[in-house]
Amino acid sequence: MNEKLTVLIDHDTVVHRIAELAKQISADYRTCCTAQNPLLVLCTLRGAVFFASDLIRQLDIPCELDFVKIHSYRGTRPAEIPVFDLGENLSVEGRHVLIVEDIVDTGHTIETMLKQFGRQQAESVRVCTLLDKPSRREAAEVIPDYVCFEIEDLFVVGWGLDYNEQYRLLPDVMVYHPEV
Ligand code: IMP
């Protein structure tokens, strides 16, 4: 047993909630996403990989999956500026984009992406996140469109979330207690 970790949201609860959200997203995009213009699901690397793969497999609308590499956290403290690399051949122009995040914290990462995709003339951009920490928000205008769970100001790991690359593979969302 690792005493630094306690369960916040167990595996089955997460699985159930993702299924609910997938239904809602499918319903919301059903009329605008077609085989010619599928929903572009942009998964932020690496934390959102597990969430995005579970979510996208339950969407029953045409969609494509791509990835954005983000660097913004070191240890339990945010780095100053989020940096992201978009695949060279990836164009969002005219596309319905759904950004899939593991957690929205200060909101700076999402704010940066929203600005860039706006400049690149995406048809629409929405944000879907496994976890949201609204009490930590600095970019006040960032409000995720789809949230699996709202949580308090806690540092969490598991379900793809890491602490310095540890604990990503844990099956539950767990609180990390660095002081123990
Ligand atoms: P933001 O730009 O502050 O919203 O940061 C978002 C990113 O910070 C997320 O994609 C995570 O990689 C990281 N992050 C924020 N809070 C946590 C946490 O509690 N555990 C692990 N990573 C976190």
Characterization of the model:
This protein has 180 residues and is an alpha/beta fold. Helix content is 22%, strand content 35%. It has helices spanning 11-29, 49-56, 108-119, and strands at residues 5-9, 39-45, 63-74, 77-86, 96-104, 124-132, 146-150, 156-157, 173-176. The strands form two sheets. It has a six-stranded mixed sheet, sandwiched between helices. Strands 1-9-8 form a three-stranded antiparallel sheet. A hairpin with a 2-residue loop joins strand 3 and strand 4. The longest helix is centred in the first third of the chain and has 19 residues, at 11-29. The two termini are 13 Å apart. The site of inosinic acid has 19 residues, from strand 3, strand 4, strand 5, helix 3 and strand 8. Inosinic acid (IMP) is lined by residues 44, 47, 72-73, 78, 82, 101-109, 155-157, 161.
Bound molecules: inosinic acid
Which residues sit in consecutive blocks of at least 5 with pLDDT less than 50?
none
Number of helices: 3
Strand line-up of the largest beta sheet: 4-3-2-5-6-7
* Average pLDDT metric: 90
- Ends: how far apart? 13 Å
**Shape category:** globular
Radius of gyration: 16 Å
Based on DSSP secondary structure assignment, what is the total number of beta strands? 9
Strand content: 35-45%
Helix content estimate: 10-25%
